[in-house]
Amino acid sequence: MALLLPAIKPAEAVPAFAAQTGMACVQCHIGGFGPQLTPFGRSFKIGGYTLTGGTGWVSHIPVAVMIQPTFTSLQASFPADSVPHHYAPNNNFSLDQVSLFVAGNLGEHSGALAQLMTYSGVDNTLGMDNIDFVPYTTDLDLGAHDLRIGFTLNNNPTVQDPYNTTPAWSFPYISSGIAPTPAAQTMLQSGFNHNVIGYTAYGWYDSSLYLEAGAYSTLSSWTLARLGTSYGVGSTNSPAPYVRAAYEWNTDNTSSWLGFVFMHANVNPLSPLADSNQVTSGYGGSNIYNDYAFDGGFQYLGTGDNIGVVQGIYTRETQYLGGSAALAGGGLGANYDLNDFQVNASYWYKNTYGVTLGWHKIWGPVNPVLYGPNPNDPIEGSANASPNSNAFIVEADWVPFGKDDSLWRPLMNLKLGAQYTIYTEFNGAGRNYYGNGRTAANNNTLVLYAWMIF
Q: DSSP code of 352?
């Protein structure tokens, strides 16, 4: 841990918000750091980041910088043909992210959380990250009830969502850019990260019922190249509709919610002839994705000394992959599906010491269109074309700065953590999943990290 300190995943907690409101980060966030939001934090986000109350010059500076280094150790070293560029086969230090945030209110009815630029030391790239801009929001007085309405402009479905079960802000909140990860992911998880522009409208009735709807369209390949990003599942043929509904119950000491997310997309798939993920092709037709997600959570906040959280999400994805199957050739089928289940439970003592246990399971039928062998990276390919993976995650955290009585509040914020991921199944098998003898357990990963933002 000491070695990580001098060097110091997208965070939703930024000191600019704490300075703007005059409140410590723990007012909005469990554990002093994002992205787990308290009921007050959800209200602040749904309110368009407009709340003020801070004093002094620092309350008028809407800028923050985040630095995050990691140390990554695998149970078994990378095979010789899969060692990440510029890294050793195992036990690597890396500067995963350096991000510049512009965040705060832009007036009484507008605000933003913009992770404008992120540098990744893992692949030596610089690009635009998460953007959530609220051009207008206001409260409507309905007599005995209130209704908050607003509009968002964002570049990542669910980045605007106030509940930390949805993909943009779900656990684990930090991960290593070097560690192997399962190949299969739903459209909501990775299909449109930072490569779209979406406009949605939302309403929040009596601080309980949250409804949101809108649509997303991918940016041009020319724009993506200049923003340092690429296509995920493909480029949209028409606006992709997005719907979110959630209901929240709050008491003096607890908060709970249940919700539903739906997204549909008709896309041109990535071209197999291109040497980058910035070229798509409609020559073989389109791919169609439908994601249905059900989520919920419970928070025990008490007096702030003992805090407990349980939350989870299940996503069912139906896939029509006619376009990709035609481009791949070989008489492949077109209709598939994918299931993703995630649940985690955490305990925090005085927002300073925390432990989180997580379970992540992915399963579906054999899918040679998307999940077959990967000659460019065998460690993340599958010999049997199965998407199935199963992981257990244990994380321990210490937050010395970022609370009411912290030194140099709100400018100094630091979290130190240790995270261990255990795989019992990886890309379709527990043993010899690629045919080269590597087991799922070989990808078990220890990550030590420092997360500093100021």
A: T
For residue 255, give the H/E element and its range. strand 254-268
Model pLDDT for residues 289-300, shown as the tens digit of each residue? 999 999 999 999
Contact in structure between 342 and 171 (CB atoms under 8 Å): yes
Chain mean position to CA 39:
20
Quickly list H helices, 108-199. Answer: 187-190
Gap between the Cα atoms of 252 and 303, Å rounded = 9
- Is residue 180's pLDDT more than 70? yes
d(CA 244, CA 19): 31
Token code pair at residue 95: 């500067």
Which numeric CATH code is attached to 15-453?
2.40.160.10
* CA distances to 53, 100, 332 from 236, in Å: 42, 29, 23
**In this predicted structure, what is the pLDDT of residue 2?**
34
- 134 close to 184: Cβ distance less than 8 angstroms: no
C-alpha distance from residue 27 to each of 37, 41, 102, 403 (Å): 9, 7, 20, 9
C-alpha dihedral (267, 268, 273, 274), degrees to nearest 10:
-70
Spatial separation of the C-alpha atoms in residues 15 and 32, rounded to whole Å? 11
Spatial distance between the Cα atoms of 383 and 366, rounded to a whole number of angstroms? 11
Q: How confident is the model at residue 319 (pLDDT cuts 50, 70, 90)?
A: very high
256: three-class secondary structure by DSSP: strand
63 band by pLDDT with thresholds 50, 70 and 90 = confident
pLDDT value of position 375: 80
Query: Running DSSP on this structure, what letter comes out for residue 129?
Result: -
- How far, in Å, CA of 165 to CA of 257, rounded? 10
Question: Can you say whether the dihedral through the CA atoms of 337, 441, 121, 133 is positive or negative?
Answer: positive
CA–CA gap between residue 199 and residue 26 (Å, rounded): 30
Q: Please, are residues 79 and 101 in contact by the beta-carbon 8 Å criterion?
A: no
DSSP 311-335: EEEEEEEEEE-HHHHHHH-SS---E
3-state secondary structure of 90: coil
In 364-412, at which residue ranges do the beta strands (DSSP E only) sit?
A: 389-401
Question: Does position 8 have pLDDT exceeding 90, yes or no?
Answer: no
Q: Which of 362, 360, 361, 366 lies closest to 386, judged by CA? A: 366
Domains of the chain: which residue ranges?
15-453
